[in-house]
């Protein structure tokens, strides 16, 4: 088996609810560790920097093809008959969506010497809730769509350490 390659677009895949998300052009996942500065009387430099808050955000960018079909599936449902239904679908969602980033690696080499690949999980953003959505249309460019999410569970790598 070959060494693992750096994660690049040609060997990456995004799945939501087990389905491949098409026409995605980028994804940014950010985890923020908020700290406060503790000085104390008579001190001019920080004595402590305790963490007080964690937050996670994710932005997914797509090529816009159809407003109904592009974007993260299940992030929001605009196929409703009323604004009330649209709002209820957002307000009553308590699960969000899981966004899985997969990486293609070499699994084996077949009898003809051809590499056989397999998909492995690189990371999973669990329980992502959409906060903002935008469309960008510029002269000479393919239209784009961005969706911003927040999530409440840090990304963990299981099976490592104790």
3D architecture notes:
This protein has one helix spanning 83-91, and strands at residues 12-16, 19-20, 24-35, 51-63, 97-109, 115-136, 144-151. Helix content is 6%, strand content 46%. It has 1 helix and 7 strands; from the N terminus they run ββββαβββ. Strands 2-1-5-6-7-4-3 form a 7-stranded antiparallel sheet, with no helix packed on it. It has a single domain, classed as Roll (Pnp Oxidase, Chain A). The two termini are 27 Å apart. With 162 residues, the chain is mainly beta.
Mean pLDDT metric: 89
Distance between the termini: 27 Å
**The top level CATH class name:** Mainly Beta
Which CATH architecture? Roll
The chain-level structural class is: mainly beta
Order of helices and strands: EEEEHEEE
**CATH fold-level name:** Pnp Oxidase, Chain A
Fraction in beta strands: over 45%
Per DSSP, the total helix count is 1
Widest sheet, order of strands: 2-1-5-6-7-4-3
Annotation, overall tally of beta strands: 7
Shape: extended
Break the fold down into its secondary structure elements and pairings.
Elements: E1 12-16, E2 19-20, E3 24-35, E4 51-63, H1 83-91, E5 97-109, E6 115-136, E7 144-151
Antiparallel strand pairs: 1-2, 1-5, 3-4, 4-7, 5-6, 6-7
